[in-house]
Design a protein that fits this description.
The chain has one domain. Helices cover 63% and strands 0% of the residues. The protein has 6 helices and no strands. Helix 1 packs across helix 6 and helix 4 packs across helix 5. It is globular.
């Protein structure tokens, strides 16, 4: 790739990243969390756990290979449910988050948390 093509690719990547961060920011704000948290690695995941009504210590589980896949799906299903969306939407968040998070953030979905999840160990 030549210089101008590489610059265009970088600019598109930056624009896409800004769009995705803005969508994540909106999701957090809708859920009553600080939107700026979308900018901070690990803290943004912790905030998503809060949106999903899961304990903060699950962040540790999300760092364990293979275990993280199962717990990520659970968290995303909970987030979808708390925004009044279906389990299918939660699976969409897992496989196509770049499409489904903007739908959640910029769409009409409102945060309506279910009863708090049962306490876990």
């Amino acid at each position: 790739m030549h210089g101008s093509g590489m610059v265009l690719l970088i600019l598109v990547g930056i624009a896409f990243a800004i769009f995705y961060i803005a969508a994540s920011w909106k999701v957090l704000v809708k859920a009553g969390q600080p939107g700026w948290g979308a900018l901070i690695p690990f803290y943004n995941t912790y905030l998503l756990l809060m949106v999903a009504q899961r304990p903060g210590w699950w962040l540790v589980l999300l760092l364990i290979p293979f275990v993280n896949i199962v717990f990520t799906i659970i968290v995303l299903l909970d987030i979808a449910r708390n925004f009044g969306k279906s389990a299918g939407f939660g699976i969409g968040l897992f496989f196509l988050g770049v499409i489904f998070f903007p739908i959640l953030g910029f769409g009409s979905a409102t945060y309506q948390p279910a009863k708090p999840a049962a306490p876990t160990m």
